[in-house]
Write a structure and sequence with these properties.
- This protein is of the alpha+beta class and about 525 residues long.
- It contains eleven helices and 20 strands.
- The chain has helices at about 130-135, 140-150, 155-170, 200-215, 220-230, 250-265, 285-300, 315-325, 335-350, 400-420, 490-505; strands at about 1-5, 15-25, 30, 35-40, 45-50, 55-60, 65-70, 75-80, 125, 305-315, 355-360, 370-375, 380, 385, 390, 395, 430-435, 455-460, 460-470, 470-485.
- The strands form five sheets. Strands 10, 13, 16, 17, 18, 19 and 20 form a seven-stranded mixed β-sheet that branches. Strands 7-2-4-5-9 form a five-stranded antiparallel β-sheet, with no helix packed on it.
- Helix 2 packs antiparallel against helix 3 (about 155-170) and helix 9 (about 335-350) crosses helix 11.
- It is globular.
Length: about 525
């Protein structure tokens, strides 16, 4: 019998430490190669670590919640024990620290769940959603009730709601430090105040809107109806079905979590009789939040930011998006104004190349800096995910057709929402868009993503009074905000770039030139 220790590997680019979030095995368990041992949180994402050996777990060397450095032994496994699980690949003959754990991953062959294809893999895969997994650690009664709702497909909405209320009352209030919803999803921003329509046309419009929102999200018709009754966007729910579909249990869990967050607000303020120093909650800064904070501070204090804003009449963009949604070429593809903005940014960057660049200090080793203009567009989309802010990017976006770009945006959103964004997908960005309009925000002054010199904030689109040909009429108006590194982008250049982007939103037909 040989006892081997598995050392924490570098799962990303330059990883130095990670937190052991949850163990999936305990001493005495028999494991096979590629069985998941634990989940770790890095500065990029939550990752599952598979076992590099087959055998029996003898000891967990690191407690949950502890942050350790790469190379630290975290688990001991005895090989050659009776009852050893069959290995799916030959067990390595060297200590884990010497074995390259993370190599190339097979290409995804399923756009719905993004699971790696191919044979046995001694590697890692990101966890689908940290919040979802942890929410399962609830009282058994709550889980049983959720399962009962899932099985009762013929039950009434009132029955479902009753179970939800009971579940929410019984479940512990989860503590959260990050948003529960991922808002990177490209969403058409539709304001209030629509004109009344006949019942038939209004019903058709509602049906089209709902179809657009849940398109490409797998769910059975009763589940879709249940989601509508609860006011839940299926795109916000992490699917756990065998085919990647959203189940009734997923909706029950999501609603209970949402209710718990509302209940938490009522008890947020500490008891006033306690001294104030006893009503301060101390949260460690680690993982994605730690990496984001470091990057934003470095960007804000190393790149002199200058910001400009422009109001845009996006009425023709809204009409164009509406036509795309009913086009056969875009059938089954989510389309939103963000798609047109992305195409506009690519078009405008080609006309103003210095916005698609990087400032490099000491480029020649003699203290001299240089500006590196990129003749490619790795278009970043800022994503507020349950794990914090991430900026995955679409590689070589300039080569994509409008349809291909729409598919790429949808895939990026799906991966970010499910927590499956890989570190490599966040490297090498050249220019970023942050879609703050999805949050109902008009504009803002975004901080430039490190390594880039420009970022565009896309505000909400809503009807406002607008002067057109001397008349005041309602038009779909949005505000673009842009931040630029003033070392590279002068005021004149930033203004010309923003004007070009605005021109496309005002007249998308310019893209045909």
């Amino acid at each position: 019998m040989t006892v081997k220790k598995f050392n924490l590997p570098d799962v990303g680019e330059g990883l130095t430490e990670a937190e052991v979030v949850a163990w999936k095995v305990k001493p005495g368990d028999v494991v096979a190669i590629n069985d998941v041992l634990c989940e770790i949180e890095t500065a990029k994402s939550l990752v599952e670590l598979p076992s590099p050996f087959a055998g029996t777990v003898t000891e967990l060397l690191v407690d949950e919640g502890i942050t350790v450095e790469v190379g630290t032994a975290i688990i001991a496994v005895a090989e050659g024990q009776d009852g050893e699980a069959p290995a799916t690949a030959p067990a390595p003959d060297v200590p884990a620290v010497e074995m390259p754990l993370y190599g190339k991953l097979p290409a995804d062959d399923d756009s719905d769940d993004n699971r790696p294809a191919g044979g046995p893999l001694v590697g890692s895969g990101p966890k689908a959603d940290a919040v979802k997994r942890r929410a399962r650690k609830r009282p058994a009664g709550a889980v049983v009730e959720a399962a009962a709702v899932a099985e009762n497909a013929e039950g009434t909405v009132q029955d479902h709601q009753a179970v939800l209320e009971a579940k929410a009352a019984e479940a512990p209030v989860p503590h959260r430090t990050t948003p529960a919803r991922a808002v990177v999803e490209p969403v058409t921003q539709v304001p209030d105040g629509q004109a009344p329509q006949p019942a038939a046309s209004r019903g058709a419009a509602i049906s089209d809107t709902i179809s657009g929102l849940v398109n490409k999200v797998l769910a059975k018709p009763p589940v879709r109806k249940f989601a509508r009754d609860l006011g839940i966007d299926l795109a916000d729910v992490v699917a756990t079905g065998q085919r990647g579909e959203v189940t009734r249990e997923d909706l029950v869990s999501y609603q209970a979590q949402r209710d718990a967050e509302h209940d938490q607000a009522d008890s947020f303020w500490g008891a006033s009789k306690k001294p104030q120093d006893q009503r301060v909650e101390r949260l460690p800064v680690k993982g994605v939040r730690k990496a984001t904070a470091k990057a934003m501070v470095e960007s804000a204090f190393s790149a002199p930011h200058v910001s400009i804003f422009v109001d845009v009449d996006a009425s023709r963009t809204m009409e164009f998006v509406k036509r795309l949604k009913v086009s056969r070429d875009f059938e089954g593809i989510k389309v939103s104004p963000l798609l047109i903005l992305a195409k506009a940014v690519i078009w405008a960057a080609a006309r103003n190349p210095s916005v698609n660049a990087t400032w490099v200090d000491n480029a020649d080793g003699n203290g001299n800096a240089e500006i590196q203009v990129k003749h490619f567009m790795n278009l970043g989309i800022a994503a507020a995910t349950p794990r914090g802010l991430m900026v995955p990017n679409i590689k070589d976006a300039q080569d994509l057709s409008l349809k291909e770009l729409a598919l790429a945006l949808n895939e990026l959103a799906t991966k970010a929402r499910a927590g499956k964004t890989q570190p490599a997908e966040m490297q090498g960005g050249s220019l970023t868009i942050t879609n703050i309009g999805a949050l109902g925000i008009d504009t803002g002054t975004p901080i430039i993503n490190p390594g880039e010199v420009a970022i565009i904030a896309f505000g909400t689109i809503k009807q406002k009074p607008w002067v057109l040909d001397g008349e005041v009429i309602p038009r779909w108006i949005t505000t673009l905000g842009g931040s630029f590194d003033h070392r590279v982008v002068d005021g004149d250049l930033s203004a010309r770039f923003m004007a070009d982007v605005a021109a496309i939103l005002e007249e998308p037909a310019l893209l045909l030139d």
